[in-house]
Amino acid sequence: MKSKDTKIFIANLIKEYRFFNETFFDNELPERIDFGIVRIRHRADGITHESPLKISLSWNMVPGSQLFKETVLHEMVHIDQIINNIEIGHGDFFQQCAVIYLEAGYNINS
Ligand SMILES: [Zn+2]
Question: pTM score, two decimals?
């Protein structure tokens, strides 16, 4: 992996995070969190860490692709749950968000 490619990957993560924070969260999620890359193949394509707040995506994902964007948005719902003391998971709160985002063209259950 070239370091330059890593920078592009992280830059895309930050770009999508900022876009979704403005579009769907009224910029109420923290402006700055940590971002990372998961190099070993995991079952999940994205991981959210609680302390410190961090979103990591699988290196296998293609920056800018629909799946990349949807996975960032999926993990951002978990950030929203963490900062609002809502249990982290894919229950009612998550599914209510999923309906709204699906109407906007993003499937966060994929
Ligand atoms: Zn999840």
Answer: 0.93
